[in-house]
Amino acid sequence: MCLAVPGKVIECEGDDALVDFQGNRLKVSRVLTPEAQAGDWVLVHAGFAISTIEERDALETWSYLQQCQAYDDAAQPLTSDVKGQPPSAVDLERSAGAEGGAS
């Protein structure tokens, strides 16, 4: 699965742009979005601004990403019966059942 992250263009120089991602600033290519200017919001994937988006959509996406992070931070790590191995499908089903999830 791929994920494009919204960011706000701070400045443009040629085909590059400095983009702010909630306080983290990265240089990205805007060869796919030459119309993007300072103040615009863009979706960035693999170092490329792939499209411009509306501010409300960007902020909504950041809200969802923050909710996912909060959920991930609160989740208990799963363990496996086999030391050093990632949890199996059986472990995941047991965990879901123990938490009141569907079985």
Helices and strands, with pairings:
Blueprint: E1 5-13, E2 16-21, E3 24-29, E4 41-45, E5 48-53, H1 55-74, H2 89-98
Antiparallel strand pairs: 1-2, 1-4, 2-3, 4-5
Description:
- This protein has 103 residues and is of the alpha+beta class.
- The chain has one domain (5-98): SH3 type barrels (Roll), CATH 2.30.30.
- It contains 2 helices and 5 strands.
- Strands 3-2-1-4-5 form a 5-stranded antiparallel sheet, covered by helices on one side.
- The longest helix is centred in the middle third of the chain and has 20 residues, at 55-74.
- The protein is elongated and about 55 Å long.
- The mean pLDDT is 83.
Shape: elongated
Total separate domains: 1
CATH class annotation: Mainly Beta
Largest sheet: 5 strands, antiparallel
Structural class comes to alpha+beta
Helix count from the secondary structure assignment: 2
Strand content: 25-35%
User: First CA to last CA: what distance?
Assistant: 26 Å
Give me the CATH architecture, please: Roll
Helix content: 25-40%
* Largest beta sheet: strand ordering: 3-2-1-4-5
Per the CATH scheme, the topology name is: SH3 type barrels
Average pLDDT works out at 83
Radius of gyration: 19 Å
Quantity of strands, as a count: 5
pLDDT < 50 runs, ≥5 residues:
none
Task: Encode the helix/strand succession as letters.
Answer: EEEEEHH
